[in-house]
Amino acid sequence: MPFASNDIIDSDDLSFLHEVLTEVCRERTIAPGSEEEKAVADQLINWFLFGIREKQELKSMLNPMIDPAGLPATGT
Which pTM does this prediction carry? Predict the structure, then answer.
């Protein structure tokens, strides 16, 4: 479920989020354009809108939703 937020994501935020997404997907061998990447991107944006703005903290918040094989964990 997405977090409610009145925040606006600007171009700097998008660049930052893309950088984090790219790193996470590379580290987890998640294919660009895959459903797995879309699920990670969705969670990344949700955590960002929730107020998590540090790269390492965002990446650690994503860890529980990604299993060791690089696939989204079930139930998220």
Answer: 0.77
Q: Where are the domains of the chain?
A: 11-65
DSSP string over 21-33: HHHHHHHTTPPTT
Going through 18-64 in order, the beta strands assigned E by DSSP cover none
- pLDDT tens track for 2-60: 555 567 889 999 999 999 999 999 999 999 999 999 999 999 999 999 999 999 999 99
Within 8 A by CB and 6+ apart from 37, the residues are 21, 25, 30, 31
